[in-house]
Design a protein that fits this description.
Radius of gyration: 17 Å
Number of helices: 8
Shape: globular
Largest sheet: 6 strands, parallel
Strand order of the largest sheet: 2-1-3-4-6-5
Structural class: alpha/beta
Strand content: 5-15%
Number of strands: 6
Length: 223
């Protein structure tokens, strides 16, 4: 079961604690606060109600905002990556593969999805940002996943025709596009899932895919 939404008071407290830690440029404290909050409320709720809004609020217009944004991002990255991680645990066959699209440098959304899957007792293989299409194909042949989630942050990397071609090459693979970079239509039937809980549910679904789907769980410029 995915977690329920956070109460307004809890959201306000988490916002304040994370903001203060970032303003102090204390990424370790950001990670600590995130881990404490995640244990209480779960990854999807914290991501949707706290992390995304905080990251979107920092425009990066001034030098101070840029450095605060970096401290917040680094703390969130560390916290998400550490949450319930078991490095020695082997991945199950037919699992989930996460990656950033070719030349895509952003990957925080994938870390959030990976953490949320671990929270559900499900491992995944996260290959990080900027994976070339040829390398993604090689990874599928080697890891033999059942589901692939590809992240794009900007239209420069969200090339829908490449994703459709990739999905057609693997008719039994469930292929999902994540992030705000996929602005071109995929062609019917296409499914748009608007939140991280929707993305988790899609990755936990069973059975082969029938088309290429579109997940969009966040449109802020996080890395």
């Amino acid at each position: 079961m995915l977690t329920d939404p956070m109460p307004a008071e809890a959201v306000e407290i988490a916002h304040k604690q994370l903001s203060l830690a970032a303003e102090d440029l204390d990424a370790n404290r950001v990670a600590s606060v995130l881990l404490e909050s995640v244990e209480a409320w779960g990854v999807p709720a914290l991501w949707e109600q706290v992390c995304r809004p905080l990251l979107a609020r920092l425009s990066g217009r001034t030098a101070a905002e840029v450095v605060i944004e970096h401290a917040l991002f680094e703390g969130v990255r560390v916290g998400l990556d550490a949450y319930r991680r078991e490095p020695g645990r082997s991945l199950p066959a037919g699992g989930v593969l996460l990656a950033g699209a070719e030349k895509e440098g952003h990957g925080l959304g994938l870390l959030a999805l990976a953490a949320a899957l671990r929270e559900q007792g499900r491992g995944c293989l996260n290959l990080g940002p900027a994976l070339p299409w040829s390398a993604l194909t090689s990874a599928v042949y080697r890891a033999r996943p059942r589901t692939v989630v590809l992240w794009s942050q900007t239209p420069l990397t969200g090339r829908a025709y490449r994703l459709v071609r990739f999905a057609r090459d693997f008719p039994l693979l469930r292929v999902y596009a994540a992030g705000p970079g996929w602005i071109e239509p995929f062609g019917p039937p296409a499914i748009r899932l608007g939140t991280l809980p929707d993305a988790v549910a899609a990755c936990l679904a069973v059975g082969p895919r029938r088309d290429a789907h579109h997940i969009r769980y966040g449109s802020v410029p996080y890395r």
